[in-house]
Specification:
Fumarase C, Chain A, domain 2; about 425 residues; 3 domains; 14 helices; Fumarase C, Chain B, domain 1
C-alpha cells in the first residue's frame, strides 16, 4: 500500500510516453490519465485497497483500470516489466521519503541551533572515558548535535542523488524492442537523470536501498547518541536536565521515579534502524546480476524505517522544546578538577613551559592545594566562547538547497494536472 500512489505516478508518465511513440492513441491516453488520476485521488483519500485474490498493488491498479475502461486498461503494461515497474515505484517512494526525513532533520537542526545559542553560557561537565575531563556547555552540547545533523545531510544528499535516477524502460533488466523514450519519462517524473544501462538499473535494486539505509542510519546514529546523553543527564547522579512530569513516566511501586521513556524508545528505534544497512547487505551480497525474489524481502523493514525515523525526529524535537536546563552545575565542589587544564594553560600563558605547568598542577591536586578558577576563556573556532553557529547554519542550508525539492514537486504536480 505504501507504493500505491507512486505506482500511479509511474503509470501516468509511462502511458504519456507510450502515446508519444505511437503505442497509444491520444484518446486512449486521455481516458487512461483521467482514470489514473481518479485512482490517485482515491489513494490519497484512503479509499484504495487490494482486493482478495489480487497479488499486489500493481495488479490492483491495472485491475481497476481494466474494470473501468475495458480493453484500453490492458494496454498500460506495454513496454515495461513488473521488474522495472516495482523498481520505479521504490525509487519514487524513496525519493519522497528522503524528502520527509530531510524536512524533519531541518526542523530539529534549527531547534538545536536556537537552543545552542540560548544556553551558550550554561556550563556542564565534559567527559572522556565517562570521567570528568574539562568544562563544556549546553551551547556546545546542542551545537554538536546540530553539526552532526549537517553531516548527516551530506549522507542523505548522496542517497537522494542515487535514488533520483530513472530505471523505467529497463523492463526485466535487458531493455525492450519497443521504441521507448526513457528520457521523456525521466523528465515527466522529475528525475535528475537515467539509470542508463538496463542491466545496472536492475542491479541497482538492493544497492539503492543499502545506500539509502546507510544515510538514514547516520541520522539514527545522531539521535541515538543524543538520546543516550539525555538519559544520563536526567539521572539523579548527574542531574543536569529534567522534563515536565507529563513527558516522563513513573513506576508502579517507586513514587519518586521520572523515567526518560521517550528517549529510551528513540534510542531503541534508532538502533534498530542502524541495523538495516547490514540486513540489506546480507540479503544481497551473494546475488548475481539480474532479478531475484530475495530482493522482495528488503521492503519488509526498509519501507517502514522512514516513518520510524521521522517519528523519532519529531519526538526528539518535541521533548527538547520542553527541556529544563540546570544552571550553576559546575559550582559543585566535585567538579573543581574540571578546571585543572585552565590552570595549566594560565601558567603557560604566564611563561611556564607546558610540561612544567602540567606537573605543577598535578602536584597541587596531589597535595590538595588546587583551587579552581571558574572563568572559562575559550575563544577559538568551535569552542565554548565561539560556537560558530552561523557557520554551521551556512553549511546546512547550502546542502539543503542542493536537494532541489521544488523541481520534483513542480514535475509531479504537472503530471497530476
Amino acid at each position: 500500500m505504501m507504493l500505491a500512489e507512486f505506482d500511479v505516478l509511474g503509470s501516468l508518465a509511462h502511458t504519456a510516453m507510450l502515446e508519444s511513440v505511437g503505442l497509444l492513441t491520444r484518446e486512449e491516453l486521455d481516458t487512461l490519465h483521467q482514470a489514473l488520476k481518479q485512482i490517485h485521488t482515491e489513494i490519497k483519500a484512503g479509499l484504495f485497497s487490494i482486493e482478495e485474490g489480487v497479488e499486489d498493488v500493481h495488479s490492483q491498479v491495472e485491475l481497476l483500470l481494466t474494470r473501468r475502461l475495458g480493453e484500453v486498461g490492458k494496454k498500460i503494461h506495454s513496454g515495461r516489466s513488473r521488474n522495472d515497474q516495482v523498481l520505479l515505484d521504490l525509487k519514487l517512494f524513496t525519493r519522497d521519503a528522503i524528502e520527509q526525513v530531510v524536512l524533519g532533520v531541518k526542523t530539529l537542526f534549527e531547534q538545536l541551533i536556537q537552543q545552542a545559542d540560548q544556553y551558550k553560557n550554561h556550563l556542564l561537565p565534559g567527559y572522556t572515558h565517562l570521567q570528568i575531563a574539562m568544562p563544556s556547555s549546553f551551547g556546545l552540547w546542542f551545537g554538536a548535535y546540530a553539526e552532526s545533523l549537517a553531516d548527516d545531510l551530506n549522507m542523505l544528499l548522496a542517497a537522494y542523488k542515487i535514488a533520483n535516477k530513472n530505471p523505467l524502460g529497463s523492463a526485466a533488466g535487458y531493455g525492450s524492442s519497443f521504441p521507448l523514450n526513457r528520457t521523456m519519462t525521466t523528465s515527466l517524473l522529475g528525475f535528475d537523470d537515467l539509470n542508463y544501462n538496463v542491466v545496472y538499473a536492475q542491479m541497482g535494486r538492493g544497492k539503492t536501498e543499502k545506500n539509502v539505509a546507510s544515510a538514514i542510519a547516520s541520522v539514527a546514529y545522531t539521535l541515538s547518541k543524543m538520546a543516550m546523553d539525555v538519559t544520563l543527564y536526567m539521572n539523579q547522579n548527574f542531574g543536569f536536565i529534567t522534563f515536565p512530569d507529563e513527558l516522563t513516566t513513573g513506576s508502579s511501586i517507586m513514587p519518586h521515579k521520572k523515567n526518560p521513556d521517550v528517549f529510551e524508545l528513540i534510542r531503541a528505534k534508532c538502533n534498530k534502524i542502524q541495523a538495516l544497512p547490514n540486513e540489506i547487505t546480507l540479503l544481497c551480497n551473494n546475488l548475481p546480476s539480474g532479478y531475484h525474489r530475495d530482493l522482495q524481502i528488503i521492503k519488509e523493514n526498509f519501507l517502514p524505517a522512514f516513518s520510524d525515523l521521522i517519528d523519532c525526529l519529531n519526538l526528539a524535537g518535541y521533548m527538547l522544546k520542553h527541556i529544563k536546563v540546570k544552571d550553576g552545575i559546575l559550582n559543585d565542589d566535585k567538579y573543581k578538577y574540571l578546571f585543572s587544564v585552565e590552570v595549566v594553560n594560565k601558567l603557560v600563558l604566564d611563561g611556564m613551559p607546558f610540561r612544567d605547568a602540567y606537573k605543577e598542577v598535578g602536584k597541587m591536586i596531589e597535595e590538595n592545594r588546587f583551587e579552581a578558577q571558574h572563568q572559562v576563556k575559550h575563544t577559538h573556532e568551535g569552542s565554548i566562547g565561539n560556537l560558530c553557529l552561523e557557520e554551521i547554519k551556512v553549511q546546512f542550508n547550502e546542502l539543503y538547497q542542493l536537494f532541489n525539492f521544488d523541481k520534483v514537486a513542480y514535475r509531479i504536480n504537472h503530471l497530476l494536472k
